[in-house]
Amino acid sequence: MILDVNEIKEYLPQRYPFLLVDRVVELDLGKSIVAYKNVTVNEPFFQGHFPGKPIMPGVLIIEALAQAAGVLGFKSQEKKPKDGYLYYFVGADNVRLRRPVVPGDQLRLEAEIITNRRGLYKFATRASVGDELVGTMTILCAERQMDVD
Known about the structure:
Layout: H1 5-11, E1 23-28, E2 32-38, H2 58-77, E3 85-97, E4 106-117, E5 120-129, E6 132-145
Antiparallel strand pairs: 1-2, 2-4, 3-6, 4-5, 5-6
């Protein structure tokens, strides 16, 4: 394991129930990341999506990939939210979701930097469960500096 959840929390501002990256297992700074989200039946979104047939919402799969990409961006630049930096999700292109994610799945999150120009990152991302592809997309994130109290 390269980063556990406590270390991940240093690089992402999200917290429960919206922190969607549990572990980082591979990290090549400036290039790529592999992370995991363990999907449990206790996730708050399963109460309404859908009762009796729980399925992780597709937008949360996109968010999980964006968070993994954010960890890659933060770590590659050695910047942290506590230092006044955030990465905002600004878009997703070519989104394709192919398989539902259900309780008990371990969602593998992969992101690779395509470009980084003036703080605008473009990532090629892929989500899978075991050998099954869940989805692919290109994610755009913008680095922003903010005031720190």
